[in-house]
Amino acid sequence: MNELIFPTFFDEPKANPAVQEYEKDMTARKLADFFRKKGVAQLKEEDDQGNWYEDWIQYQGRHRIYSSLLAPARYSSFGCHFDLLKIARLLEIFSYFSPAHAYSLQVSFLGIFPILMSGNESLQKEAISALEKGGLFAFGVSEQEHGSDLYSNSFRVTPEKNGFRGHGSKYYIGNSNAASMISILGRLPEKKLPPGSARSGEARSGEARSKDEFIFFALRPESSKGFKKAKKIPTLGVRTAFVGGFEVQEHSFPQEDVISVGNRAWDAIFGTVNIGKFFLGYGSVGICQHALSEARKHLQSRVLYGKPVIQMPHIELLIIQAWIRLLAMKLYAYRAIDYLQTAKIHDRRYLLFNSVQKAKVSTQGVQVMETLCECVGARGFERVTYFECALRDAQMIPGLEGSTHINYGLTLQFLRGYFFNSDSSIPVPASLIQGTTERSENEYLFKAQTGGASQVRFAPYLRAFENIRSVSNVQILIGQVKAFRLFLISYFAENKLRQTLGGSAQAEAEAAMALGKCFSTIVYAQLIAENAKITEIPHEAISLIFQQMIEDLSENALALGTIVGSAIQRRLLDRVIAFPRAVKNDLVWARKKMGLC
């Protein structure tokens, strides 16, 4: 059994062998040492003040923490490489101690990755040199008026005799106060379009625009006369981080500063977001682990009616439920990364699993926090606790830019291939956390392309459950998945007819979102099943996890049933709704594992 997959509490290094295993990595130990020395009290004081954490930026620069994570082997001066498992574990630890500080790393990832995906070698070398000197990066894509609507992006880039000139503004940009480089997305002048096409200044949000207009370029704030000082935006969470807006006025730059143009710029946006925001899931895991640790200590020390609160049956059950949901988050996240590690041009299953991670792991984290809130009561809102910070920061991850909805929608691209076009010859990836595959650098990730989702093939959708189907709750979920596939056959047939006759766009959008939630829950269960077998966790843990999976899928199916219009479809969805089997011995095992008895 791999103990590293269970919820881990990094403020207890001596008592926890899993922490010691994580901290065999020198970078992880350096990171943890900084925050243990600083302590929660000082972190909370800094959070109240909302001041930038210059001490951390200098510390990570001296110890080359960010460069050890983000520098690819071909440019690293210190023998580092782009190690996916190392990045995941560091972000888990990082967010355990301070999500606000971790934000500077997450944003640096987004800022530097378009450069690493480019063919501009001189710019790549310059970026890694700055990174190794402690520099930060920023991702200048979103705008105040347009958010993440890329087609409405209004930052203007005009060709000049000796290069280009950029003019516009960006909003909600992390690290914009201290970035060595900002990767900025702009628009070139529109090419001549056919009659009736959207023209400059006339395109509405969502209308088709040519990808040829996109351009990514690197801006160095310290040396740019056109860069106007970034203004900090007050935010609910990550208060010590810097999230800001800035203007660029008539900034001239040479061809050498161009990162990518046209389709390559488009691919860079989505390649960066697909991977960079995937890692936010490990941030959710870290946040929830610390919140659970703090909640449990409080409940053990607080006495009501003559005994510790944690011994009250309903509180104990809620704590176990939170712990089990957190365990499922880790099982999924540390299996999804195996598909990223083995991704290649002919195996892009990671596109589905990354979308599910971005939609599901973070929202599961919010549910963990809601469950813990029911336990700790007013203590969770006291500003001296990490818990109060976790309440704010956990909900920001799925909520930013409506990305949860976007990712539920993205999963639907793979729905037919997953259920109706599987390939039994597709291999099962080896495991990074089990050490059955090398932690080598995957060059494909630096040149990944968008499109072609319908061509992605998956292994048979029930294969993952075969090795654990002796667990009764797994059998119940298998029945639900089969029933959902039958529903899809009817849904696709009727939906095709409805599109022919003309249907409500709003109804279609609502159904698509509900469908995405059902599908994501099934995919989530698949990778949990795979990793449960790989890590050899006990059947009791699997039973408790799948009890929650059955309940979640039933809830999703019920919501979908209120939207679809056909009586036949609603009857088919009735079969997806099921009741899990509660086994007393499962809870006995969980109590012992968690040290509650």
Count of individual helical segments: 19
Overall residue-averaged pLDDT value: 92
Which residue ranges are poorly predicted, with pLDDT under 50 across at least 5 consecutive positions?
A: 192-208
What is the radius of gyration?
A: 24 Å
Order of helices and strands: HHHHHHHEEEEEEEEHHEEHHHHHHHHHH
Sheet of most strands: 4 strands, mixed
- How far the N terminus sits from the C terminus, by CA atoms, comes to 21 Å
- Name the overall outline: globular
Task: Give the strand line-up of the largest sheet.
Answer: 1-4-5-8
DSSP summary, beta strand count: 10
As a percent range, the share of strand residues is 5-15%
Summarize the amount of helix as a percent range: 40-55%
Secondary-structure-derived class: alpha+beta
Give a summary of the structure in a few sentences:
This protein is an alpha+beta fold and 597 residues long. Helices cover 52% and strands 10% of the residues. It has helices at 17-22, 26-49, 54-62, 65-70, 84-97, 99-116, 121-132, 263-276, 280-301, 313-341, 350-376, 386-399, 403-411, 415-420, 472-501, 505-535, 539-561, 567-574, 584-594, and strands at residues 136-140, 156-160, 163-174, 179-187, 214-219, 227-232, 243-253, 258-261, 303-304, 307-308.
Would you mind describing this structure in some detail?
- With 597 residues, this protein is an alpha+beta fold.
- The protein has helices at 17-22, 26-49, 54-62, 65-70, 84-97, 99-116, 121-132, 263-276, 280-301, 313-341, 350-376, 386-399, 403-411, 415-420, 472-501, 505-535, 539-561, 567-574, 584-594; strands spanning 136-140, 156-160, 163-174, 179-187, 214-219, 227-232, 243-253, 258-261, 303-304, 307-308.
- It has a 4-stranded mixed beta sheet. It has a 4-stranded antiparallel beta sheet with strand order 2-3-7-6, covered by helices on one side.
- Helix 5 packs antiparallel against helix 6.
- Residues 192-208 have low confidence and may be disordered.
